[in-house]
Specification:
Elements lengths: L1 H22 L8 E7 L5 E6 L6 E2 L4 E5 L8 E4 L3 E2 L4 E5 L5 H6 L2 E2 L11 E5 L5 E5 L9 E2 L2 E2 L3 E5 L10 H4 L3 E5 L28 E2 L4 E2 L4 H9 L1
Parallel strand pairs: 7-8
Antiparallel strand pairs: 1-2, 1-13, 2-7, 3-6, 4-5, 4-9, 9-10, 11-12, 13-14, 15-16
The structure holds calcium ion (3 copies).
The site of one calcium ion has 5 residues, from loops.
Amino acid sequence: MKQLRFVARQWFVGLFALTAAASVQAQYCGLFFSEYAEGSASNKYVEIYNPTDQGIALDGYTAALYSNGSVTLSGSYALSGTLGAGEVLVVANTGADATILAAADVLSNSFANWNGNDAVALLDPQGNVVDVVGEIGTDSPWPVADGDTQNNTLVRAASVTAGTADWSTGATQWTVLPSNDWSDLDAHTFSGSCGAASDEPFTLRIFHNNDGESALLDVDHFAAVLDA
Ligand SMILES: [Ca+2]
Ligand SMILES: [Ca+2]
Ligand SMILES: [Ca+2]
């Protein structure tokens, strides 16, 4: 038991060292919308960008549309495959301009069917909002910089390293290009510093089942439990 206790103690020392290291690294990096186009006719697309230095599996992620203030899905597309490091995935409407179609990786008229007052979201495999353009549950073109989400193309700031479910933050992160301006299509200028996808935040929970409850145990407590 003493050997086990020693191993546990060393494991915890290593874990705390890892936690301390993580706290001084660059901020969280993850998938986000790098561009959103709400042009004329069916000229609708988004880019999804991977800012990390490793591929990210898209299986389970959903490109989601919440139209006209709806709080439930109006349209969606189930993403799949792997998005390479520093690459963008372009999701467009089938009726978009040939320039957009030439750059598109995925076509979905269920999803790419907004006209400025519809929230466009990226959901993770657990259904959490990873990123959003607009505010789910409200019906309005949303102001962004010197424009809004209607009849414009929005390009994400180069410094953004991850999406946000909070539109009050997200709304401040875009540059507005005119309607049908696709000059930044299929590429993203990124100035952040991201490591691997494993930099994502994590929660440590040690389960202590003696009393049916969970608790975060410190080194000495954990050793004591092992000895018990
Ligand atoms: Ca609409
Ligand atoms: Ca439009
Ligand atoms: Ca772009």
